[in-house]
Amino acid sequence: MPLELYNTLSRKKEVFSPLHPPYVGMYVCGPTVYSDPHLGHARAAITFDVLFRYLKYLGYQVRYVRNITDVGHLEGDADEGEDKILKKARLEQVEPIEIAQRYTALYHKAMDALGVLRPSIEPTATGHIPQQIEMIRQILERGYAYEVNGSVYLDVECYRRDFPYGILSGRNVEELLAGSRELEGQSEKRHPWDFALWKRAEPTHLMQWDSPWGRGYPGWHIECSAMSINYLGVPFDIHGGGLDLVFPHHEAEIAQAHACFGKEAAFQARFWIHNNLVTIEGQKMSKSLGNFITVEQVFTGKHPKLSRGYPPMALRFLILQAHYRSTLDFSEEALLGAFRGYLRLMTAYQRLMEVRPYTYSSFSVEAWRERVFAALNDDLNTAAAIALFFEQTEEIIRLRRQEIYLTAEDLALYQLTWKEVLIDILGLSPPQSIEWEKWASLIGLLIQIRRDARQAKNYALADLIRDKMTSLGIKFLDFPDETLWEMYE
């Protein structure tokens, strides 16, 4: 089964094939670096990290570009409000570059901990001002933009005469335009839904550059168009980001690409892929609701909704247990379940490495492996793939106890599949050896004390140890000659 991905542009799953095999160009909208990385950042980064890993596993040479937005992202999507980084810099009385560098470093630190691979290229908006100015100049020359008072806007009405606006989001632009009323003189735009390509800067504005239209700074949307096309050409294979970026950001990107390059742009990217959002106990994550959770708070437990800190792999596993296009509802209960599930699979993985081969096989590894990769090929269904590994945890115990058997060839393929999928593709690092050994040694000691208690007919102590471990998410598996243990959800 070939890899199929859901294309937001066509609203259906399509077989993925790159424009120039074996090369794949993928651009993903990265963070605006003005605050600590949060759960939404983690979900987007992990989603496209898995896609990056899987494309490479399939043999493609992937150029993965993920940008850093360090200027131009205003508080409102309609070219309104203050630049987010400038606002933070003003509040802290530091230079904007200090804010951008501080939060870029924190983003990298959090993503590294979560096992997210660095992209091939990580361009910044401020590092690509000339490319943005040149793209705006071409859009003006083609007649799809206008300049007023030193600002440049894309003329949506003019653009719509030649190209469809709303093709990605499915928005009914006539209804949007009809529902948008601005008081005369309140805006320098010709139409309410025009958007800024370049904004004139006031003399006191801390981040501004020279341009043919005067001193100013780029709009948010033009940054990603210019950077993606600069490194990947147009069109390219995959453009990704969070679902909240479909409109207006990604819709504007498509418009800018076509306004600049015409029909050659072919919707800028062939596949538009979007991960869904994170909710907190059924509510939208929001600072105003007091449920905004950063990645660091998950690690430390320093948040009212958390009773303790959790290791990075617990959060990564929680994200992977949901399909990337479904809403991910975060709660401590769900995070604890994910942590236990992760440890259960890692226990099984380490136990599998201790299994010895036999002269014949009791089940088909190849058939199970095909089901795993069918799940991954079905729009990167990590949740379904993980479920297939959970199904095998009992089989691994039976293999270890030689109740069922695998030949050396089948056992090698079985072990390889666990490593390839869990470690290489899903990016789940095994628990750190020192911590794991201490934990395993402690549990092993409790198992021995319990066995001694049962032999001495001290069943009250034996049951107390079992019940206490059960409450901690550790299940004892009693056999006549030994007791094994595993984590459970």
Strand content: 5-15%
How is the main sheet built? 4 strands, parallel
CATH top level label of the largest domain? Alpha Beta
Mean pLDDT over all positions: 90
How many beta-strand segments? 15
Going by CATH, the homologous superfamily of the largest domain would be HUPs
- Helix fraction by DSSP (H/I, runs of at least 4): 40-55%
**Counting H and I runs of at least 4 residues, what is the number of helices?**
17
Strand order of the largest sheet: 4-3-9-10
- How large is the radius of gyration? 27 Å
**CATH architecture descriptor text of the largest domain:** 3-Layer(aba) Sandwich
Shape descriptor = elongated
- Output the structural class: alpha/beta
Uncertain spans: none
Give me the oligomer status: single chain
Structural domain tally: 3
- Span between N and C termini? 31 Å
CATH topology of the largest domain: Rossmann fold
Description:
By secondary structure, this protein is α/β, with parallel strands linked by helices. It folds into 3 domains: 17-275, Rossmann fold (3-Layer(aba) Sandwich), CATH 3.40.50; 279-425, Isoleucyl-tRNA Synthetase, Domain 1 (Orthogonal Bundle); 433-487, no CATH class. Helix content is 45%, strand content 14%. It has helices spanning 39-57, 84-92, 96-113, 129-141, 156-159, 173-178, 220-232, 246-261, 295-300, 312-320, 332-352, 365-377, 382-390, 393-400, 408-425, 433-455, 459-471, and strands at residues 4-7, 12-15, 23-28, 61-66, 145-148, 151-154, 195-200, 216-218, 236-242, 269-275, 278-280, 283-284, 328-330, 474-478, 483-487. The chain is elongated and about 90 Å long. The two termini are 31 Å apart.
